[in-house]
Amino acid sequence: MKQPIPVTIVTGFLGAGKTTLLRSLIERRQTRRLALLINEFGEVAVDGALVRDAAAGDEHVHIEDFAHGLIAYGDDERFVPAMQAIAARRAHVDHVLIETSGLALPTAAMALLQSAALADDFILDATLAVVDTPLLLADEFDGGATGTMFDQQLAAADVVVLNKICGLDEEALLRAETRVRERAPNVRFLELAFDARLDIRLALGLRLHQPTRTEHMHFTPTMPDPGATPLAAQYRLNGHAHSGLGAHSHGLSTHKHFHEQDPGWMSFVLRTDAPQNGERLHAALVAVARAEPLLRCKGYVRLADEDAAVLVQGVRARVALSPGAQAAPARSLLVFIGYHLSRARVAALLATHTGSAWR
Ligand SMILES: Nc1nc2c(ncn2[C@@H]2O[C@H](COP(=O)(O)OP(=O)(O)OP(=O)(O)O)[C@@H](O)[C@H]2O)c(=O)[nH]1
């Protein structure tokens, strides 16, 4: 019988460090042959480009990205075929990693792995949720759409990775751990990470899920099979009970969340032809994050006297510009993500602070 390929799902709120974690796992892959699926909320695949840079043409790392989308429950047209294509190359793949968008729940991918189309070829190894620990400690995930998304991602995770911990003392780490445990009591492991660097043995090959193949069945009031496991002994899979009962109980994350993305979440791209001044652009992005509900910005820009692209990474008002791996683009391009974020206001603020038109 063929062995199912283990799959690790990496979730976490916008900017938590999911892509950084994947990059670091690629660097530490040793002999493992990896296939990665990257799902971004924004319409431009910045994360895919960053992960490709880390893989640097390594033939044992296969990367596929779907920008501007969500791996959705049932009505997704790309996820299942992409996974089936990986299954067809199974002799060359030891482990699959799926990065969900920062605004997606991992549960859609988790459930699809158990569908008839994929269950014979794949097994969920673990779901990891990466957390921006300073933002957690600053109560930035309390309440509202952000807090709801954060809690739902955590609730689906087996392992929580407390990331961005440089500068935090023991007492702060304990507080962060307590907050995660309070918010997501079912999380099994907590890991600490600097720059999302995890020992690969703590990330891959955890085998936290049993092989189960359940069609998406709804509860029927029949007697259980004599051999069915008691419900209490089953592995939790985000509200879906898995047993011979074919029960289907909804927990925190119902299917609704995959079908009806909250329309308040906005993502748009702004571009400019004018070469930028790094310091002014940095100050402009900090000003936008302070004035508007901006949660994430990222992209590549052209600076006035640089031949290489400059990578912009902003998580709220924490903005960093660093040298990118490729040549400077003809037009600078930034993706902005936020809740009820106004494209017009962000463009106007950028124009005021940088002196160039952003459209
Ligand atoms: N200071 C600090 N920054 C970090 C750490 N880990 C990641 N970052 C930075 O946080 C920013 C966001 O990291 P990403 O890995 O792109 O986050 P992400 O979760 O993939 O983001 P989205 O896909 O947009 O949701 C980048 O600027 C990273 O360099 C860390 O441990 N410490």
TrEMBL record:
Catalysed reactions listed for this entry: GTP + H2O = GDP + phosphate + H(+)
Cross-referenced SUPFAM superfamilies: Hypothetical protein YjiA, C-terminal domain, P-loop containing nucleoside triphosphate hydrolases
Pfam families: cobW (PF02492), CobW_C (PF07683)
Residues annotated as domain CobW C-terminal: 265-354
SMART domains recorded: CobW_C
Any GO molecular function: nucleotide binding
Keyword terms of this UniProt record: Chaperone, Hydrolase, Nucleotide-binding
Xref: Gene3D superfamilies: CobW-like, C-terminal domain (3.30.1220.10), P-loop containing nucleotide triphosphate hydrolases (3.40.50.300)
Entry superkingdom: Bacteria
CDD domains xrefs: CobW-like
GO cellular component, one term: cytoplasm
Cross-referenced InterPro entries: CobW-likC_sf (IPR036627), CobW-like_C (IPR011629), CobW/HypB/UreG_nucleotide-bd (IPR003495), P-loop_NTPase (IPR027417), Zinc-reg_GTPase_activator (IPR051316)
Record's function text: Zinc chaperone that directly transfers zinc cofactor to target proteins, thereby activating them. Zinc is transferred from the CXCC motif in the GTPase domain to the zinc binding site in target proteins in a process requiring GTP hydrolysis.
The family this protein is said to belong to: Belongs to the SIMIBI class G3E GTPase family. ZNG1 subfamily.
Name of the protein this chain belongs to: GTP-binding protein
